[in-house]
Design brief:
Strand order of the largest sheet: 6-5-7-8
CATH topology of the largest domain: 2-methylcitrate dehydratase PrpD
Number of domains: 2
Helix content: 40-55%
Largest sheet: 4 strands, mixed
CATH superfamily of the largest domain: 2-methylcitrate dehydratase PrpD
Distance between the termini: 53 Å
Radius of gyration: 22 Å
Strand content: 5-15%
Shape: globular
């Protein structure tokens, strides 16, 4: 049993992580790690294409980036335009977060690949030296594994319910920085500086992501950590030093933001032989993971009953602490005023599931939020909180109850959603998700290359030049490697 008053310790953790980053090679990676990370790259590409098409803020962030740094070598995947590396990472990550559709660790709920892949891709194109597919995959694993281990370090002290800190974003600065450091082969000292600079960047709270009624923060935060982490690695490569103890120092990450409470062993135990980043969920639907099981339960219950929606007098969501956060305030969650608010709402997602039999990517747009049938159902949705349903070590189960006009009541429980490590998506399902997302591209040339992109990503270790690959697959008018 971990002591909740654990003190700062293991000050060698940062050095060990930097050594891990500097020495990890593709040959060191187990097959399941290689395969999962290739699927994750494919997933991020598809999420970005669909996210740019449907999400609020996608056009605005692209416009900002092109006005701030056009003319660079790094590609905006969706449009094929080029801009400065940090700005490309910002845009591509923001697009990939646009529908809350990217992979996530179920508990604490912290996103993984979206904080790493955009930075690595942008940096690979920006460099004049050649980056191979094997180096790209090794660097990705470094970043994803750091994200997962930072998550494990805070897990014993996370509690139930939504925290104030947005650990996905905070950790993302470090994960992107160390991944980029590995990509360009920085030594331990320079990697330490990359982490130190990441500490100077690291920020993020839930205010603009969950609680604000109108904010693009939910889609933006991964963009900021990718942009910042990439910049940290590039600064360190230029000789800018910040070699403090970024993670476990007296004023390091855990002391400054987490009250000194963390599981030090989680950072480095079996580092290189056990990969905790395997414990992530590939989402089968958009929106907050907390809503997925509720939507599935509602769909199953409606199908089993075979009754018209009009026969449902009331829908009750039985929730724990985390679920309650996504149901309050109830009127806001029933009728969310923005896409971000809709993605964070269990009542809204359930209403869509009951009205339409599925949750679609277009549901979070203004027209989707205004659908009369779903809005009418949402008005009949309430929630009941039970402390017994709260979990301090995993995702809360979902129970949906239909109370009918005839007075009967029916319940359905789903313990974990599709894509959860206990119910993983198959390789075929993950590829199908990419194809479905890619079909929303506004570029016929990109849609025509969908199968080619999938094939090359799933064999990424055979790519001899990642910049050339990205240019061939995504650049505007297929204009090459961007060198």
């Amino acid at each position: 049993m971990l002591d909740s008053t654990i003190k700062l310790q293991d000050k060698g953790a940062g050095d060990r992580l930097c050594d891990f980053a500097a020495t990890l090679d593709f040959a060191d990676l187990p097959k399941d790690v290689r395969e999962q990370n290739k699927l994750a790259i494919l997933d991020i590409f598809g999420d970005a294409i669909a996210g740019s098409h449907f999400s609020e803020g996608a056009k605005e962030i692209r416009s900002y980036a092109l006005s701030a740094g056009s003319g660079g070598r790094s590609t905006l995947w969706v449009t094929g335009e080029r801009c400065a590396a940090g700005l490309a990472a910002l845009v591509n990550a923001t697009h990939a977060r646009g529908l809350d559709y990217d992979d996530i660790i179920p508990f604490p709920q912290i996103h993984v690949s979206v904080h790493v892949v955009p930075a690595l891709a942008a940096l690979a194109e920006d460099r004049l030296d050649v980056i191979t597919g094997q180096d790209f995959l090794a660097a990705m694993v470094v970043g994803c594994e750091l994200q997962a281990r930072l998550t494990r370090a805070i897990a014993p002290f996370f509690g139930s319910g939504l925290p104030s800190l947005l650990s996905s974003q905070i950790f993302g600065y470090f994960s992107a920085a160390l991944a980029c450091a590995r990509l360009i082969r920085l030594d331990r000292g320079a990697s330490r500086s990359a982490l130190g600079l990441a500490l100077m960047h690291a920020a993020g709270t839930e205010e603009m992501v969950v609680h604000a009624t109108r904010s693009m923060g939910k889609i933006l935060y991964a963009g900021l950590s990718n942009q910042g982490g990439l910049q940290c690695a590039m600064m360190a490569a230029s000789g800018i030093t910040a070699e403090g103890d970024a993670l476990t120092g007296q004023a390091g990450l855990f002391a400054a933001l987490y009250g000194g409470k963390f599981d030090a062993g989680a950072l480095t135990e079996q580092l290189g032989s056990e990969f905790h980043s395997l414990n992530r969920c590939f989402k089968s639907a958009p929106g907050t993971l907390a809503a997925h099981s509720f939507a599935e339960a509602a769909i199953l219950l409606k199908r089993e009953l075979g009754m018209p929606v009009e026969d449902i007098q009331r829908i009750v969501l039985h929730v724990g602490s985390w679920g309650r956060t996504m149901c309050e305030p109830i009127e806001l969650r029933r009728h969310p005023p923005s896409a971000s608010a809709a993605m964070n709402s269990i009542p809204f997602v359930v209403a869509k599931a009951v009205a339409n039999g599925a949750v679609e990517l277009s549901d979070f747009r203004e027209a989707g939020r205004a659908q009369a049938a779903a809005s009418h159902i949402a008005s009949r949705i309430d929630y009941e909180f039970s402390q017994a349903l709260s979990k301090i070590d995993g995702l809360e189960q979902a129970t949906v109850e239909f109370v009918m006009l005839n007075g009967s009541a029916h319940r359905k429980t789903v313990h974990v959603p599709l894509g959860h490590p206990e119910r993983p998506m198959s390789r075929e399902q993950a590829i199908a998700k990419f194809r479905q997302n890619a079909a929303f591209s506004n570029r016929p040339d990109l849609i025509a290359r969908t199968d080619q992109i999938a094939e090359r990503v799933l064999n990424l270790e055979n790519e001899t030049d990642i910049a050339a690959f990205i240019g061939a697959m995504f650049a505007k008018n297929n204009d090459g490697a961007g060198r």
